[in-house]
């Protein structure tokens, strides 16, 4: 999908490039390599000798991202005051969707099927690659299920429908392979499938009626898929990050380019449906330690760096990073654990403020800087050392603090600023040079620090503030001017800096 820049706004910026690598590190971005047409994730090597000496006190900034996790528990948080309620770490109960059983849609008797005692460890999303029908009736959904079963049994020679479940374009959910529904309802065991070689004894397969190379699923279909996946995850104790596309494990176009590009959003929406709201975190400049709500603590680098967090490798989980002011370098980790960085990328000029976001909607968070001198955002679509920005957008006024978030619920992060002088958030729904904010919302008190996130799991990032004087987060579920906080959390110490992230 192309980056969401306004026409003609992509421009080189002349940013200092710096060294191509720090201490032999390779680019962090979780690129995919192809072997005989199959795509595999590639992780970065770890460098044991990364020097990150610096005594710079971080700027006041925060980044948008989705968060989820459990109530405070874990190493490093024992002495921190905390109040406020979030769901516990165990998956909350998820309502079962209405699932049409095999006898109801007229399934044929299957051949021998293996019912396994092991539970699945993932969900694979497929599309049927058939017509995008506008018949949204239950009768049509039954006919689609029968057609798939006939093809799989009579043409492919399989003992039953290959996938475990089917979702029609009308949003009807059907059991596809016999015995799949009772195993799911019990949350124990699974039926050996026939939907992806080497994954048939590990993955629940879901077919979605239609072809999604360029078109998107219908809203009813997508919503039913979210509910079905959330129910599967809750029943089997899987995280939302265990959802993948067919092409992640097989050389295939399935589930179509458009649908595959929606997988990160599907994970986010499933996590939200499972009761996972966004989570907060803090960075303690004096020790260089992150305290992540619901997860624990992790240290990266020395004291006094600038904290960031993002989904660097498209696994659906945000992990920590730091920015070193004196060499304009981002140090990023693929896990929320103490240790050295997995990747280092130099970008920006002296005095720039770092931020990150998914600028092109591909599911990867990538680096960016805001230049206070000219009030310009310089955004990159890849975590690399090219030194060149993919887009430059002027927005804000002198003294503003840069922000990024998914303000309108689409798949793109866009820019914004927080103006300390009047405690107002100015948010844009497009990365462009119009100079106009799409919304301005006053919230907080003088001295507050901005923080944004999808606090209620509805796919929209909304505003909040961290108040150092009371060590409290004040979070809103709507971007409006009501002035009322929906969530108040006491957490941290006076000099801590707020961050947010999907820590699990």
Descriptive notes:
The chain has 504 residues and is an alpha+beta fold. The chain has two domains: 41-90 and 276-500, Neuraminidase (6 Propeller); 99-273, Lysozyme-like (3-Layer(aba) Sandwich). The chain contains six helices and 31 strands. The strands form eight sheets. It has a six-stranded mixed beta sheet, with helices on both faces. A hairpin with an 8-residue loop joins strand 27 (449-453) and strand 28. The two termini are 27 Å apart. Residues 97-250 form the Peptidoglycan recognition protein family domain. Pfam families: Amidase_2 (PF01510). It comes from Glycomyces sambucus.
Basic shape? elongated
How far the N terminus sits from the C terminus, by CA atoms, comes to 27 Å
Structural class: alpha+beta
Largest sheet: 6 strands, mixed
DSSP strand tally: 31
Domain N-acetylmuramoyl-L-alanine amidase: 108-256
InterPro entries: Amidase/PGRP_sf, Amidase_domain, Integrin_alpha_N, PGRP, PGRP_domain_met/bac, TAT_signal
GO biological process, one term: peptidoglycan catabolic process
Protein name: N-acetylmuramoyl-L-alanine amidase
